[in-house]
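[agent] plan:
  1. take the single chain provided in the ticket
  2. run structure prediction with default settings
  3. attach structure tokens to the ticket
  4. add a short note for the reviewer (M.T.)
[agent] executing step 1
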Amino acid sequence: MRTFSFKGCTFSFTSQHSGPAIIFLHGFLESQRMWDGLIKKLPRAYRKVTLDLPGHGDSENLGYVHSMEDMAELVKSLADHLKLKRFYLCGHSMGGYVALALAEKHPDLVRGILLLNSTARADSATRKQNRDRAIATAKRNYKSYIRLSVPLLFRPKNRRNLREEVNKAKKDALRTSKQGIVAALEGMKLRPDREVLLHFAPYPILFVGGKHDPVIPLEDVQEQMKAHRVTPLLLENGHMSYLEDFDALRAGIKKFLAAAKA
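[agent] step 2 finished; step 3 output follows
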């Protein structure tokens, strides 16, 4: 892993292979390590870039609120650091929110977006209340909050069937700082609706959803998949598609990239 500086803070990233770049953006309570298995199975013809977002993995915090816009500017700074002129963005959950924020402000930089178990819609009032409760819980005992939260991202039957993967995800999540948890929750709560990008973006979008995703409602996913610029990929399991639906996800990404390149 390598590091670079943004706004006086240090951030961890990796870059491997050459060719058209894909910047991989992890979700909440994850780190760039989540992409290790998937990257190994994607074509070597692409440059793969990963990044620990603020307060996650080995990266420092930017402040008390990590807005999606601030994190998007961090990603752009990394792209500038690596001299990337155009690139794909692949974001899981919160990483998808960051990808959309960057694409809204810098559309000319984007070759395409891969949204994994994410949404272009803003938080509902209920969802905002849930984030406030999560913030209060994390402030009291953030390690207990992590241990309880991570298994709930999986489809119920997979919490047993994929016990090793669940435990590995919990271990990685425990590297997230308390400030990183609270700042990300505050930032996600404040993000605006960006669904218009699904209809009018000047680049293709792969929208990956899970039929049993406990975080993103299936109805919302299916509605957004009808958007003009979207290639839909509806998988069988929960929020952690890169673990629960690995083979189908890998195949879908390879097909999308091949079509986007044609």
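[agent] step 4 note for reviewer: The chain has twelve helices and eight strands.
[agent] ticket updated
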